[in-house]
Amino acid sequence: MGKLSVAYISAVKKTIQDNKRIFVRFIVSLAVSIILVISACSLTAFAAENPDGTISGTESVIEDSSVIKDLIGVDGSQPLEVILLVTILSLAPSLLVMMTSFGRIIICFSFLRTAMQTQSTPPNMVLTGLALFLTIFIMFPVFAEINEVAYQPYAKGEITTEEAIVKAGEPLKDFMLKQTTNDDMRFFLELSGKEYGDGEITIENYKDELGFEVVIPAFILSELKRAFQMGFLIFIPFLVIDLVVSSTLMAMGMMMLPPAMISLPFKIMLFVLVDGWQLMVGTLVSSYNL
Description:
Low-confidence stretches: 53-65
Strand content: under 5%
Radius of gyration: 28 Å
């Protein structure tokens, strides 16, 4: 039994060492969740003990509507609403990435690197940074319009928070509708059970009728479709080089020499001669019809 216990403990230690990063992430996530639940329960207990909103020992009164509730309609004294708020904030970066041009750009860059067979060159950090700044460049007119029609009036106190959110969503919806195909929009309209006309779905005809729950998935599907179409065109010239190099090596009887090793310098030379990065970036930007 003693040998079995020692062997079991050794196996557990080895498992923890092999998956140290996973265990650390799990422990951190568990600790954060416990802290959030304890904080939410404390807020609930405080609200129950002080129903009039007063702090014990003082005469100051806490207003029923907190800053958080005024901004986003979430009551900070409710544990469930706090947990939902934290969940939404954790998903906000992903939602913003999928609602902009970032997805198409980063997919095309990944296709380019795969077609050239350069493995991890350029590294992921470089491609992500380039895609991020190109996204800012493409989306700058949309951000400028959001600042003009929503943020500035809200900062001056001319409109309420709800009105600012609605006005901020209109330029973003216009951008997504311009990049969404009619087929994808009809597909999600049929899935949602909404009726539409037989004509073309345009911004003027359907802008007020379409909500973000239909526009966002249709936009993402259109972006994926265009990104894969562009990826196919990116692969063609590099595929031709691979075929030529493979046929030449086969004719010369050099079967043991990897064709990828010979074709890689020719791919890099072709990409440099045609100024590939400028051509790639220019095609991506022009595909959004700015």
